[in-house]
Amino acid sequence: MIEIKDVTKIYTSKNRQVIGVDHVSLTIQAGEIFGVIGYSGAGKSTLLRCLNLLERPTSGQIMIDGVDLTSLNSEQLRQARLKIGMIFQHFYLVSSKTVFENIAFALKAANKPKEEIEKRVNELLDIVGLSDKRDAYPAQLSGGQKQRVGIARALANDPNVLLCDEATSALDPSTTKSILTLLKKINRELGITIVLITHEMEVVKDICDRVAVMQNGKIIELGTVYELFTNPKEELTKSFINSILQFEIPEHLLQKRTGTMVKILFKGESAEEAIVSDMLQTFKVKGNILHGKIEYIQNIPLGVFIMELTGERKEVERALDYISERTNGLEVIAHAA
Amino acid sequence: MLLNALIDLIPELNKAFLETIYMVAISLCIAILIGLPLGILLFVTDRGLFLENNIVKSVLGFAVNLIRSIPFVILLVGLLPLTRLITGTTIGPTAASVSLSVAAIPFFARIVETSLREIEKGVIEAAIAVGATPWMIIKDVLLSEARPGIVHGITITTISLVGYSAMAGIVGGGGIGDLAIRFGYYRYDNTVMITTIVVLICLVQIIQFSGERIARLVDKR
Ligand SMILES: Nc1ncnc2c1ncn2[C@@H]1O[C@H](COP(=O)(O)OP(=O)(O)O)[C@@H](O)[C@H]1O
Ligand SMILES: [Mg+2]
Questions:
Q1: Is residue B4 part of a domain?
Q2: CB–CB of B107/B39 below 8 Å?
Q3: pTM for this model (two decimals)
Q4: Which ligand is nearest to the CA of A44?
Q5: In whole angstroms, what separates CA A287 from the centre of its chain?
Q6: Residue A82 contacts residue A64 (beta carbons within 8 Å)
Q7: Measured on CA atoms in the order B60, B62, B65, B71, is the torsion positive or negative?
């Protein structure tokens, strides 16, 4: 369990002070995948780097499994870091060393004997699926492969925690998926707590259990990913969610439209089609689905439909009330012309 | 006639060549032995690095700048007492090697520091995050990553030493440069002058060429 207690990080340069992290308190449960999302400059990296004291907080404490990292001396801190893995957007492998040597480096830090290092590196290469690249140099690897080496290095000493600083932001979408799948596997099979930061809601949606939204060094919203998707409070959260649930209705359709345009959100188990077809049977309205999409967030479906309803105004209004009662979100995009 | 003159020159040239190699080799070894750790120290004690230490950084930085700002000829003469203390004499190639080394140490240290600076900070941080000791970071990250740069630095230092060693004649150091100055310059002997210059050009070319080859060999980026 990681407890961040009232952590503030202020950077002081010649004549200016920049606040990186502003009084953040958070508890991250053992075994969860915790995401922090925010735009560039929000303070995500600073917060993450405070967790292994790559950045020393100006004030506040970082407790990992009950130990206050800020109170450790440098040797104790080094020992603690053996149990906190970290991966980076730009991988940061030692370019003059082979894949094997890069991973072995972490084991050397833990003073492991040679034979054990040999055995463990092979094991790790197997976990990340890179056994055939053992003697390659980083320059000979693709981005996804480099990140796999980074992950193997981070996992070398059986850490309890894995910190991921925009680990997929430099990768293409399909490689991103494969790295996220690997992270999820590591979390589920090895029981490692993962803290990841990202500016992409897609990443959060795919693997996080809980997420914190960060802005100007502060956590402005926090909850399970599903809660945030279905019931966002802050504008920033909404804008991140819209980046996924966004539908662009072609202009000519909007022009041609005669009825009322609505966006309907179905959450969880509400049988989406049934409600719509019931509505169409009960009221004298015609419905025309312009766009529809079901996202699975933490394996719970979240459906979004954009419909155009035509009919008498009274009937349309009653139909809307009906839907509004039975679904979790109804938004009228445009009223009847 | 020219050929005869050249043949007459061979023993003299041979001796001078060996003296140059001797002086350069000694000073280079000492420059690497002391300059490399010094360069590393200058780097790792810098602000924001893992052995940050402002006092060490400032004192070393000042000493390095001090020596580097003194013209070599002055250093050569000024260091005579030190030379006598170390080698027991103030003339000859061994004596000249003292001031050559003193000049080369800070020169090489700065080159090492500069090539360490080119390493991506993130790579060093990744090593810290992994729990590596400072010594591991120096050995397996810094020196490993900066290897091509350091090899270049050794090349440049060697070539500079060849140049500086020419001035060693002032303290009777000998060497090819000294030969060129004594015969070629003071006695207007063009044969000696041109021959020595050709030898120097070849020497520098060979050093540069080998240096580049080695640097390429150790570069895995
Ligand atoms: N080493 C540093 N020195 C000074 N300011 C910094 C430093 N690192 C980050 N900052 C500042 O702190 C703020 C948060 O940065 P960062 O944590 O990198 O944001 P994010 O990762 O969310 O993009 C920014 O305003 C940034 O300029
Ligand atoms: Mg960042």
A1: no
A2: no
A3: 0.90
A4: 1
A5: 36
A6: no
A7: negative
Q: Are A73 and A81 in contact (CB under 8 A)?
A: no
pLDDT for the residue numbered A47: 97
Residue B189 is assigned to a structural domain of this protein: no
Which ligand number lies closest to the CA of residue A212? 1
DSSP reduced 3-state for A163: strand
Q: What is the pLDDT of residues A232-266, one digit of tens each?
A: 899 999 889 888 877 667 777 777 778 888 888 87
Do residues A51 and A163 touch, judged by C-beta distance below 8 A? yes
Give the whole-number percent of chain A exceeding pLDDT 70. 97
Residue B16: is its pLDDT beyond 70?
Answer: yes
- Rounded to an integer, what distance in angstroms lies between the CA atom of residue A244 and that of residue A200? 9
User: What type of residue is A205?
Assistant: K
A113-130: pLDDT as tens digits: 999 999 999 999 999 999
CA A82 to CA A80: how far, in whole Å? 5
Cross-chain CB nearest to B144 (options A92, A97, A108): A97
DSSP conformation letters of A267-312: ETT--HHHHHHHHHHHSSEEEEEEEEEEEEETTEEEEEEEEEEEE-
Across the interface, do B144 and A54 touch by the CB < 8 Å criterion? no
Of A37, A46, A196, A198, which is best to mutate to test ligand 1, by the most ligand atoms within 8 angstroms of its C-beta?
A46
Residues on B contacting A at a C-beta cutoff of 8 Å: 120, 122-123, 125-133, 136, 140-141, 144-145, 147, 218-221
Q: How many residues does chain B have?
A: 221
Q: What is the DSSP letter of B106?
A: H
Angstroms from B182 CA to nearest CA on chain A: 47
Rounded Cα distance, B163 and B141, in Å: 33
Longest C-alpha distance within chain A, in Å?
Answer: 81
Mean pLDDT over residues A216-240, rounded? 92
Give the residue extent of every domain in chain A: 2-243, 251-334
* Residue indicated by tokens 């957007």: A89
List the one residue out of A103, A171, A112, A108 whose CA is nearest residue A135: A103
**Separation CA A153–CA A150 (nearest Å):** 5
| The pLDDT of residue A207 is above 60 | yes
Interface test with A, best of B130, B139, B216 (most A CBs within 10 A): B130
- Which residues face A294 on adjacent strands? A303
| Nearest CA-CA partner of B161 in B203, B202, B199, B194 | B203
Domain that holds residue B33: 20-173
Question: Are A154 and B132 an interchain contact pair (Cβ–Cβ within 8 Å)?
Answer: no
* Helices (H) then strands (E): counts for chain A: 12, 14
Q: Using CA of residue A250, residue A252, residue A254, residue A257, what is the dihedral sign? A: negative
Contact A157 B128 (CB under 8 A): no
pLDDT at position A271? 57
Looking at the structure of chain B, the number of domains it has is 1
User: Rounded distance, CA A215 to CA A221, Å?
Assistant: 9
Q: What is the CATH superfamily name and number for domain A2-243?
A: P-loop containing nucleotide triphosphate hydrolases (3.40.50.300)
Residues 6 or more apart from A173 whose CB is under 8 A from it? none
Fold of A251-334: Alpha-Beta Plaits (3.30.70)
